[in-house]
Design brief:
The complex is a heterodimer of chains A (97) and B (433). By secondary structure, chain A is α+β, with helices and mostly antiparallel strands. Chain A has a single domain, classed as 2-Layer Sandwich (Alpha-Beta Plaits). Chain A is 20% helix and 19% strand. A two-stranded antiparallel ribbon of chain A has the order 1-6. In chain A, strands 2-5 form a two-stranded antiparallel ribbon. Chain A is globular, with a radius of gyration of 14 Å. By secondary structure, chain B is an alpha/beta fold. Chain B is 35% helix and 25% strand. Chain B is built from 15 helices and 17 strands. In chain B, the strands form two sheets. In chain B, strands 3, 4, 5, 6, 11, 12, 13, 14 and 15 form a nine-stranded mixed β-sheet that branches. In chain B, strands 1, 2, 7, 8, 9, 10, 16 and 17 form an eight-stranded mixed β-sheet that branches. The termini of chain B are far apart. In chain B, 50% of the residues are buried. The chains are: A alpha+beta (97), B alpha/beta (433). The complex binds flavin-adenine dinucleotide and iron/sulfur cluster (SF4). The site of flavin-adenine dinucleotide has 42 residues of chain B, from helix 1, strand 3, helix 4, strand 11 and strand 14.
């Protein structure tokens, strides 16, 4: 497979957001060892919101979230995260969609 | 807000807008609630609009709807890493007075549709998220709770048009949570280019548009497809695969999109463009087996929330609009007859769907999701085989044609056994029948 460098953050710069400061709409529940489902989000979140801490846990910075719902569906069975829509009016604002 | 509405519609995508519009036009007292800043601000589509479904709701929509291009050419491509094989269909017959398919930009289109809903007399409240349904002691739905202070509102019937995540229904216990193997995650970018560049690059006239639908090695073995659509001054490009495949294969969606954009058959079409947005959205792809219970005492589900997408033909918005309209007509009929919004009265909605293309088409392709899910080689082996077959036959190198044919047949048989080949054809034919 050819090497393609991607920086998701650069893609997100193009988008418009209304960030609800201090009120994250997605929260990862405290854990010592992530489940496979939770660990998979580091790669498959299309906005790259999930990352690993130095001690191996999975954390989220949901500011760039595109509100697709993928992480919610992947972790529905394991209950690793709490997922809500941002408050009405906040979050991603698609200019084109 | 203490009055009781005739109907509450949750969501202002195509299904909710169609439903609220038809209800309000008939004179009913309608409240529509949308979580985005405006209708469209949360919504993503390719996007192809199928005129027929909208025409049945707003016959003269062409007069002021924001339409990009009508489609005159369809390209269907199978890609391997270096090549594409495929078929094109282009016809001047598509340059008709009332074209059948258009490209649209959803944020603009939804805004327009929602303005029509307001003009028809519905009360539209944006920036408000419905958190759950309110039920009476007997389990009948009588209203909704929102994230606004004192945000409880009541109605005779609630229509859930809240899209693929359908959280209102699952959090209120009337439908199951969506399963990862019944939804695709799609990522999409908007690439801007001057209008004349698009027209010369795609060999089209001023209002004309081209659609490219793609399958093959770009999804790196996952069940999925990709697309490229021409708008007036932009190109929409995207790719989507089943969520269950993404988790299994551990592929970054943005990587997949870059790989597609860099394919030698695609790259020149995008050259020099400026990217202005990156979006992601789920698409219901579970087909008929994934469709939930569609009505109950005081409630109905329409559009993506009901999994109404025909993934084979890339149709969703038309099923959304049609189901929204049919739900509205069911409510209007019940009101006129003075009947309560009970499950038995609202069951007329399901009958109407069964008599329409919505459930007929989903029924036709009911086996396909399973067949594709269990036959990943459709997305890996066959594209490669087709491409190398085409290359073998086209390259003139002194080898005779009969030997070349033998080589092609052998390449198919060495990749898939004869039984496998026949079984694949049988499964596919059956799933499409
Ligand atoms: C990449 C992509 C390409 C596609 N291409 C095509 C195509 O070319 N042609 C086609 O016909 N279809 C296509 N589809 C499918 C099509 O977009 C959908 O089928 C269609 O949008 C469904 O309409 P809907 O109204 O049911 O849902 P949506 O359009 O998702 O609308 C749901 C609305 O409800 C709102 N909402 C959700 N929850 C709440 C809540 N709790 N409270 C208040 N509001 C809420 C949302 O903000 C949204 O406005 C595509 C989809 C994708 C993702
Ligand atoms: S909803 Fe989608 S974009 Fe947002 S964090 Fe989850 S996977 Fe990422």
């Amino acid at each position: 497979m050819q090497e393609i460098s991607i920086k998701v953050e650069e893609k997100l710069y193009q988008n418009r957001y209304m960030v609800d400061e201090g009120r994250p709409h997605i929260v990862v529940k405290p854990h010592t060892q992530p489940t496979d489902a939770l660990a998979s989000l580091v790669k498959i979140c299309p906005a790259g919101c999930y990352s690993r801490t130095e001690t191996g846990q999975v954390e989220i910075a949901p500011d760039g979230c595109l509100e697709c719902g993928t992480c919610r569906i992947v972790c529905a069975a394991t209950g690793d995260i709490e997922w809500n829509y941002p408050r009405g009016g906040y979050g991603i604002l698609f200019k084109f969609g | 807000m203490s009055e009781t509405f005739d109907a509450i519609v949750i969501g202002a995508g195509p299904s909710g807008n169609a439903c609220a519009y038809v209800l309000a036009k008939s004179g009913l007292n309608v409240l529509q609630i949308e979580r985005g800043e405006y209708s469209g601000s949360k919504n993503v589509q390719g996007a192809i609009l199928y005129a027929d479904a909208l025409e049945r709701i707003i016959p003269d929509f062409r007069e002021d709807a924001p339409l990009e291009r009508h489609i005159v050419e369809q390209r269907m491509w199978i890609l391997d890493d270096k090549a594409h094989v495929g078929g094109h269909y282009r016809s001047d017959a598509f340059n008709e007075e009332k074209p059948n398919r258009y490209t649209i930009i959803r944020a603009q289109f939804d805004k327009w549709f929602n303005r029509k809903v307001r003009e028809a007399g519905a009360l539209v409240v944006c920036e408000t998220t419905v958190t759950e349904l309110i039920k009476d002691g007997k389990g009948k739905v009588i209203g909704v709770r929102t994230d606004r202070e004192d945000g409880e509102v009541y109605a005779d019937v609630v229509v859930m048009a809240d899209g693929v995540n359908a959280l209102v229904g699952s959090r209120s216990g009337i439908k199951k949570e969506v399963a990862p193997e019944t939804v695709a995650l799609a990522v999409k970018e908007m690439h801007f280019l001057p209008q004349d560049v698009i027209e010369s690059r795609f060999n089209i006239g001023e209002e004309e548009g081209v659609v490219i639908e793609v399958a093959g090695s770009v999804t790196v073995g996952m069940v999925g497809t990709a697309f490229l659509y021409t708008n007036k001054e932009s190109i929409a490009i995207g790719i989507g695969c089943l969520v269950s495949d993404f988790t299994e294969a551990q592929v970054r969606p943005a990587f997949l999109l870059e790989k597609f954009k860099n394919h030698p058959s695609i790259k020149p079409l995008l050259a020099g463009s400026e990217v202005k947005e990156y979006a992601a959205h789920l698409i219901p792809e579970g087909g008929l087996p994934a469709v939930p219970q569609l009505f109950g005492d005081g409630w109905m589900i329409v559009g993506d929330a009901a999994q109404f997408v025909n993934a084979v033909h890339r149709e969703g918005s038309n099923l959304a609009m049609t189901s929204g309209r049919l739900a509205a007509e069911t409510i209007i009929d019940a009101k006129k007859a003075g009947k309560p919004m009970s499950a038995s009265v609202l069951s007329a909605y399901k009958k109407a769907l069964e008599n329409s293309f919505v459930l007929k088409d989903l029924h036709k392709y009911r086996r396909l999701p399973k067949v594709l899910h269990h036959n990943k080689h459709f997305f890996t082996d066959y594209p490669r085989l087709l491409s190398s077959a085409a290359e073998t036959m086209l390259r003139v190198d002194g080898e005779d044609k009969r030997s070349k044919e033998k080589k092609v047949t052998k390449s198919f048989r060495s990749t898939r056994s004869l039984g496998g080949l026949i079984g694949d054809m049988f499964n596919l034919a059956r799933a499409f029948r």
